[in-house]
Design a protein that fits this description.
Blueprint (H helix, E strand, L loop, with lengths): L40 E2 L7 E2 L5 H11 L3 E5 L5 E6 H5 L2 H9 L8 H4 L1 E2 L5 E3 H5 L3 H11 L3 E7 L5 E8 H8 L8 H13 L3
Parallel strand pairs: 2-3, 6-7
Antiparallel strand pairs: 1-8, 3-4, 4-5, 7-8
Length: 199
């Protein structure tokens, strides 16, 4: 005999409803000697904000503002990583240089015109990050001259998947350093001041 199940009450979805998004809680305070994973945004726990290469720069900037991020992963039509777009790319000198070289208007600038393309992206392996300290991440980002670092997991067949993001601004916040600017040099100087105080 088939069991009869009671139904649950239902109602109409209210206007303005949103959907839950995963949230990763990173420790508020870290030291340079703490494990590097304590400052890494883990993409198995948090959804990365993405944009397509053919999206306009204004759409990309609006996405950054809406989601409170300073970096977007650029994915092609096959969802492969095509590049990386940062707030510095959008708000810095790149748009003006592009218009001087190519002509057009601000509205003509696409993500692909400003992003760092995939072939120029340096990544860290998750196995190295798992065994690293926060200070090593700071040193690596400083050496690369980039505000963000991508962490990849590699499968047995050699394919890579971005599994984490490291942000110098996020690290500075967790170190207790006031972040006054998204400029890398200023943030690194603030972190170095923390280091000299022996944190």
């Amino acid at each position: 005999m088939i069991r009869e199940f009671d139904t649950l009450p239902t109602s109409r979805l209210k206007t303005g409803s949103t959907c839950m998004r995963p949230v990763q809680i990173l420790p508020k305070n870290v030291k340079l000697s703490d494990p590097a994973l304590s400052v890494m945004t883990d993409l198995s726990k948090v959804s990365v904000v993405v944009v397509r290469p053919h999206a306009s720069m204004d759409i990309a900037n609006s996405k950054m503002i809406r989601y409170g991020v300073r970096m977007l992963l650029v994915l092609d039509s096959n969802d492969n990583v095509a590049g990386l777009l940062t707030a510095s790319d959008v708000l810095g000198e790149k748009p003006m240089r592009f218009l001087q070289n190519m002509g057009g208007t601000h509205a003509d600038i696409m993500v692909r015109d400003l992003m760092t393309p995939q072939r120029e992206l340096e990544v860290m392996n998750i196995e190295d990050v798992k065994n690293a300290e926060v200070g090593q991440i700071v040193a690596t980002l400083k050496k690369s001259g980039r505000q963000h670092g991508l962490v990849v997991a590699e499968s047995e067949d050699g394919k890579q998947a971005v599994c984490g993001i490291l942000s110098i601004t996020q690290i500075a916040r967790q170190l207790g350093t006031p972040v006054q600017s998204y400029e890398l040099a200023q943030t690194l100087a603030d972190i170095e001041a923390v280091v000299s105080r022996g944190k």
